[in-house]
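**Backbone shape codes:**
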Amino acid sequence: MPRQPPLQRERWIDVYRGIGIALVVWGHVYGGYSFELIFLFHMPLFFFISGYLFRPVASPAAFCRRKAAQLLIPYAMFLLAIGIPLAISLYMKNPRDTAALLGFAGNLLLGGSRLSAWLAAFWFVTSFYAVLAIEAALVGRCSRATLLWLHAAMLALAYANAHLAPGLQVPFAVNVALAAAPIFHAGYRFGRMREPGRLYRPAATVAALGLVAVTVNHYAGWRLSLGYDMKVTQYGVPVLSFAAALACCVCMMRAARRIDASRPALARWLAELGRAAFVIMFMHMVFTMGLAALLGEQYRLLRVAAGLGGSWLLYRASLRWTWSRALLLGSAPDLAALGGHRRATRG
């Protein structure tokens, strides 16, 4: 989700992310049929586009340090900003329940699938960081065939995790990287195709079949697990759901390009959401659940608007100051400037 130059300066990429983050918020508010459709591909979208933008790095260690500052510092800041009030509320409700408070603190420290409700989307950032670390270590250092075999092995391990130990709560959801890295690498390979347009038609066919399968599954009452609920290691039907998710990612990429070319007003709006996607990922549950607590869960469309709009306003406000760009947005230049200012102050 954080931007990687130079390709990401193309507006269609922010449009793509804007569509993706809008689907994330919608999926967390609405249930039923739309939820099942969205969960076929909504989180793979972000891993796929990040792989599309990825470039081999000279020093994986330096890359990981830089990405840790850009991803994990905002993760920690937002986690504390939301987690501390929740901990205070938990204490105020029952001051004597020390076990509950310690359990909550432990969940904050370990992250991943232990985080729920107001913090439900935080798993993505730590898992995404694990994927970046894996790809930085492999891409450019292994042959194409070796990379394909390694990612196939990761996908097989992800399926083993899903079927043999589905309730396993690995700290920071690093096990989800086993399922996410193959999607990321597929995006990387797609970005290096000479004629990627040749895949649009077969991708549309596979995506349509996937959506039809979800529709039939829902209305026939079969209750099969077809989608990608990555946080809880549910990856649908092995290989088939993976292929459907990738096909949807490719189709969404084509749709984003077309929107950018033919619908400038809509493209500007979606691109704004795309640029704010990092903050929206962290904050949308605060607005959607907060509004549900105030008005009731039935105002779903209003809650979606609040989740997107409120988080976007926070993003825009965070652009105003060096410290907020550094600590909340993970801006590398501002982190460097903030570090230089502190050193100068101490000197």
User: Anything to note?
Assistant: The two ends are 36 Å apart (CA to CA). The chain has 15 helices and no strands. Residues 1-8 have pLDDT under 50 and may be disordered. The first helix runs from residue 11 to 29.
